[in-house]
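[Meeting: bench + compute handoff]

Bench side (C.D.) handed over the final construct sequence. Compute side (W.E.) agreed to return the predicted structure before the next meeting so the bench team could plan truncations. Sequence as handed over:
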Amino acid sequence: MNIYQSSGLFKKLLIFLLGITLVTACDSIQAKEKILSGDNYGELHDQGKLRTYYFYTPKSYNPDRPMPLVLVFHGDDGSGRSISNVTRFNELADQKGFIVVYPDGIDQKWSLRGNGQGRVDDVLFVSALIDHLQQQINIENHKVYATGFSRGGILTQALACKLPEKIAGFASVAGSLPVRLKSNCQPKTSISMLMINGTNDRDVLYEGNDHTQRGALVSISDMVDFWRSHDQCTSSNESPKFSKDQVKTALYTGCNGNSEVWQLAVVNGGHFWPGGSSTDESVNKFNAKLRLNASETIWNFFQRHSS
C-alpha cells in the first residue's frame, strides 16, 4: 500500500469518526430538547430496580441555559406527585426559575442502607439519579439541593452525611438525624443545613425517639448541635422571627466554607409541612395563623449556597 492509499484511508476513517461524534452530540442535544416545560415523568434502572420520578420544569426553562435543581423527598406512604401537591414547589419553580424533581421511594418508602434481601440503598440511588438528570436536563451542577418531609427529611440528613460533594444545601422538614448514622457522619466538607420541626410532633419527637419504625433518632437540639459543631460555627442569632413567637429561629453563622446552620422550631406544631396544602382542616387553620411558608423559606436558604 502506497502513501496515497494510506492517506485516503485515514481521511475516510477521520470522516467516519467525526460523523459518529456529531450524531452522538445531536442525540444528546435532542434528548435535552425533548424535555418540555411543565409536568414530566422519568425512570432509570439502579441497583437492579426500575426507579421512577416526577419532575417539573418551569415555563422559563431553556435547554441551552442551566438551571438550579431541587430534589424533594416524600414521607412514608407518599409519592413524588403527592409531596409536590403538599409543598407547592412547582409554583415556586415558575416564579424563581429552577427545576424540581420528586423521586418515588420503592413501596412508598426510603431505605438508608441496602441488604442482601433486595433492599436498595437510596443514598446510592440519589447519587445515580443526579448523574442521570445531568444527562437529561441542563442543570447548574454547583446548585443542586435536597429537601424532604418526615422519612424524606431523614433521608435528606443522610444525604448530607454521605453525598455532600454532589449537593450544595440541605433542608429537612419534620425529620431528624438517625442515631445509627450520627457516629459515622463525617462529611469532608462543610454542610449548609436548614431544619424545620414542630415542637409537638408525635411522629418525629422533638426530644428524640429511642425507637421507631424509622429507627432511633437524635433530639432536634442534638441534631442542630451536631451540624453547628461539624461546621465550626462561631456566632449565633436566636430570636423570634414570625408572628406571635409561633416560630423560634436560631441562625448559626461564621461557619467553615461560608456554610450556615439554621433551625426553625414551630411552637406547638405537629408533623406537617408549614405553609403546605393539607386535607386536615385543623392543619390548614394552624397554617393560616402561622404565616410560615416552608417551601419559600427553603428556597431562599438554598439560593445563598452553591458547591
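W.E. noted at the follow-up: Confidence is low (pLDDT under 50) at residues 13-33. C.D. will use this when planning the next construct.
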